[in-house]
Task: structure prediction
Amino acid sequence: EVQLVQSGAEVKKPGESLKISCEGSGYSFSHYWIGWVRQMPGKGLEWMGILFPGDSDTRYSPSFQGQVTISADNSISTAYLQWSSLKASDTAIYYCARQTSSSINDAFDVWGQGTMVTVSS
Amino acid sequence: QSVLTQPPSVSAAPGRKVTISCSGSSSNIGNNYVSWFQQLPGTAPKLLILDNNKRPSGIPDRFSGSKSGTSATLGITGLQTGDEADYYCATWDTSLSIGVFGTGTKVTVL
Result:
C-alpha cells in the first residue's frame, strides 16, 4: 500500500525554527514528485512547492519562495518542509502529497495525514 | 488569491445532483489537466478525479468530471449525506510554473 506518514503536531514560538517530515512507503520514493500544501484555519488549500527526490529539482510558489525550504532524503524515503524563523501566520495544517507520475503537472494521488503547526507566544 | 474560481457553496436534497464549476484561464485549465479533491471535515483531501474526467480506483461513478475551454466541472449524482464536504479543483499553471488550487466549494445535503 502506498502511504505518506507525516510527523506529529508541533507547537512553537515566533522566531523558532522547525522541520516537519513526510515518509513515503510502498513505492519508489525517488521517482515521484512530492508536494506540500498549506491549509490555514478555516481556509482553503494552498500549493506551496514541489520536489522531485530523484534529482532534487524543487519549485516554489512565489508566495512561499524564501519563506520555507523543501528537501528530501532518498535513503530514508522522507521529504521535509522547514522554516528558519516561524511567524504566527505560519499556523496551519501542512499536507504532503505525491503526484501520480514523474510529470510535474500531474495530480496529487496520495496524501499524508497532515501536520498541525501552531505558532504562538 | 487563487487563480481558480469556484462557487463558495452548493446544496441539494439527498438523491439529487449538484455541479461545481471551476473557472480559470488559458495558462492553467485551458492547457492542463484538471483534478478534483474531496475534503471531509477534519481529514486530508482525497483525489476524486484526475486528468479532467478519470476516476481513481474506488471512487464511485456518482462522481464525474468534465472540462471545456478554461472551465471545469465536477458533478455529483445521487447525493448522500456522506458527500457533505469541501471540494477543490486543481491544475498546473504553465505561466506561473506552479500548481494551483481552486477557492473551494462547500457541499451541503439538505
The beta strands of chain B are 9-12, 18-23, 35-39, 46-49, 63-68, 71-76, 85-93, 98-101, 105-109. The mean pLDDT of chain B is 96. Chain B has no helices and nine strands. Residues 30 and 70 of chain B are 4 Å apart (CA to CA).
